[in-house]
Amino acid sequence: MIKGFSLFKLCGVTLLGSVFLSMALFAAEETAPGVKGMSEEEFTPTKEVLTVKYVQMDKPYHMDVESLKGAFKDAGAVKVTLQKQDKAFPNGGGSVSGAEVKAIHDGLTVYFQITWNDPTKNARAIAVQEFRDAVALMFPLGSVEITPAEHFSPRMGDREKPVNLWHWKADWEADLLVKGELEDVEAQYPNMHDDFNLNPYSAYYHRELITSVEVLSGGRAANNLLSQPGRGRTVEDLNAEGFGTLTTQEHQDVNGCSHYEEGAWTVIIYRSLITDDPHDVQFVPGGNSYFNMAVWNGGEQDRNGQKNISSQWHPITLERVAWQ
Amino acid sequence: MTLVHNWHLGRRMEYPYFESRPKRQFAAVFNINRCIACQTCTMACKSAWTYNKGQEHMWWNNVETKPYGGYPQSWDVKTLKLIDNGENTWYTDEKDEKLSPYGVYEGDTIFEAAAKKNLNQWAVGYIPEDKEWRSPNFGEDVAKSNKPDEHSSLPEHSRWFFYIQRLCNHCTYPGCLAACPRKAIYKRKEDGIVLIDQKRCRGYRKCVEQCPYKKPMFRGLTRVSEKCIACYPRIEGRDPITKGRPMETRCMAACVGQIRLQGFLDDNPKNPVTWLIKHDKLALPLYPQFGTEPNIYYIPPRWAPRSYLRQMFGPGVDEAIDKFMVPSRERLAVMSLFRMTQSIIFEYKIEEGPKVFETMIHGKKFEMYNDTVIGYGEDGQEIVRTTIEEPVHIRDPKHYNSI
């Protein structure tokens, strides 16, 4: 009986071994149309750990980079190497080679500061040929241990291994500053004729037209967050489980601010450590997680999979708060 | 990539998704010979769907002048360059009625060109800039001159232009659908209409880039892309005028020149659209070499140089023009159905009438019979009845000078 069991075990191990071998072979080849498999190295998180420093701070009245900058003074930076996205169609990016990430928390809110070089500021995407600058942080959802044995895709997660993404957009920040909180077409084309604003009597003569904007603006009528005025934030809170599955959350919890100077972006993205949304990553002081990131250079027509990515997860450790 | 059959090309081609044809396919036949570019179709569409803010540059339907015109500017020339491998020819010696009615295309499609060039995206393409979308008919009425010795006599003129009427082709293998990294674009199983999900779209403009016909358009106001929706509420029969019967789109119904007939491509040989496209081969696809199997078909203009038309509509041009110039009895009858009703005709029947006219056209005998053509709706009920000869009413002498 015991002998039989150990024979089974032996066979089982061989079987499992061959499964792993075939998986490794499979991973190196094309896994789905337009998607190339990933290397073992990409399933290994980096050695360098991002420490989310505990900082006792008063929340500034204005959440801007200038007011928050001082708090990051003693936080250690992690340099993230970025590369072209070359696994899923459409491939692209490659114009931004790296970014620096720092993080702090005050026991209530976590702040990530990302800086990278970009010679052009692209903070509007109204003309068909214009694309925005953007940066996204990605976190595995739930409590996970990422090891080469336990595959967790560093590229948009995987089926049944969802990720939470925080996507800061330069044009959303520009939207916040204008009336109605959405840059209108006049911002791009001040002299374009339309039946809505230029007619001095438009409110009277074109009332039906004006009231039909909402109904006949597909994106707005479908409640697409990208189309909505008055979003009140610069960062979109999303989930994904693999390429092409990015989905806006019903509940938006993340915000951010930015500063562009001398060819470099500084973006601070913040959110409360804990939320009550099951689709959000949760941060516990003293706990661990991982992050990964991507940068889009609008000047190089970056958008969607055409982006500068890091191909590995980066571990995060949150410092305990003073009283813990 | 999977291999799918494209009957326009007469061969299989690479496409990111499996072949999945709709139950019936939204389609139309446009008779270029009759178009006067009045843009009534363009305005009918505009006033229904794109009069709103941020859509100022959008013309889901437009009529443009060929060879020089285009909306967006030079869209076709630019896309043709992208697929040009120097050998974009057709093999026409052998044809199969069903699988390769025009012969076999030996060049690259937009999908194959992208794979050959290792672009790491599904199709070749480009994004026209905002200034290229400024007008629905750039280069309006600009004629092309060919050297007189090239085309010395009719049927081809030495100075020529013609109008081409364009809307989304609701392709069987859409470039936009293939391009979308989010699968926000879908093709309806019930009627083959291609739509952009306004909730899933994130304004990446990959569809704007990879649709060879440049019919998805970016809307700056909503930051997402929009396209022709084939007036789907009308197609679904939700307009009360046709009492639940499928109804033709706004651009079709508004056609002043009566150049348009819309319906569905199906397996019924007595469906007027199916008959004109598949059986008579009078109507041809626009730039079939792109490889998307477009579903708007054109009766080519008889006065334009054949080499130009062959590039635009494929090798079926010469046969189609010959057929158009000397129409058969059945062809004349089916063509009489154009714009007789805005309910979609699913089947036609011809009741024979007396011979009323005969002549010689380019050495070929043409006989005209005053047949009656009857169109039937989806439910098999008669919806329209017309004759080849238009009825003539002679006014009573006492009303000669009265209005």
Map the helices and strands.
The complex is a heterodimer of chains A (324) and B (403).
Chain A: H1 2-28, E1 30-32, E2 35-36, E3 50-54, H2 65-69, E4 78-81, E5 83-84, E6 98-105, E7 109-117, E8 134-140, E9 163-169, H3 170-176, H4 185-188, H5 202-205, H6 207-215, H7 218-221, E10 235-240, E11 247-248, E12 255-261, E13 264-272, E14 288-296, E15 308-309, E16 314-318
Chain B: E1 2-6, E2 11-15, E3 25-31, H1 40-49, E4 62-66, H2 75-83, E5 90-91, E6 104-105, H3 110-116, E7 144-145, E8 159-160, E9 162-166, H4 175-179, E10 185-187, E11 194-196, H5 206-210, E12 217-219, E13 224-226, H6 232-235, H7 250-253, E14 260-265, H8 272-279, E15 284-285, E16 296-299, H9 306-313, H10 317-325, H11 329-335, E17 347-351, E18 355-361, E19 364-369, E20 372-376, E21 382-387
Parallel strand pairs in B: 3-16
Antiparallel strand pairs in B: 1-2, 3-14, 4-9, 5-6, 7-8, 10-11, 12-13, 15-16, 17-20, 18-19, 20-21
